[in-house]
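Appendix B, record 7
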Amino acid sequence: MEPKEGMSICDWASCSGGLLLHGGDVRQLFLHGQESNVATYNISRINMILPACGRTRSSTSPR
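Structure tokens (predicted):
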């Protein structure tokens, strides 16, 4: 997967967000995911924030 700056990456079963984070520079991408398990959803949210120290443009929501 080699997305370019400004592209969106969607993962409809994101679990902890690992696939989203391996898509490239998270500061230049729009990340979207969903997870039905609230605990895993919260882990995913944390994983979206930590790599860029809060500078990500991410959107995750519980299903």
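Remarks on this record: The mean pLDDT is 75. The chain is about 25% helix and 25% strand.
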